[in-house]
Amino acid sequence: MAINKPFNKAPMPKQKSENAPPVKIFRAGGVKATIWENTNKELQVYKTISFERNYKDKDGEWKQTNSLRVQDLMKASLVLQKAYEYCVMKAENETATETTEIVDD
Hints:
By secondary structure, this protein is an alpha+beta fold. The protein contains one helix and four strands; from the N terminus they run E-E-E-E-H.
């Protein structure tokens, strides 16, 4: 009698979860942009950015929102710009590393 061995399954895609740490966080006051690394079903890696503002409510408890006040707009612009720069520069560095050849003279 033959014993059937289970098929080797491809690794499950990584998804943003409470256990996965963020790649990078940019903060300006109570405003922050968080960069997450994800993997799709085709095992391609991509990044997502979450955005939030932290504040204290009338009872003094910390809360989070995605709504901004006028005075938060410049801080939001700054953290989103930094997140964009980080992602673009990291992608350019990875591409440069992959395509760079070392030639001996």
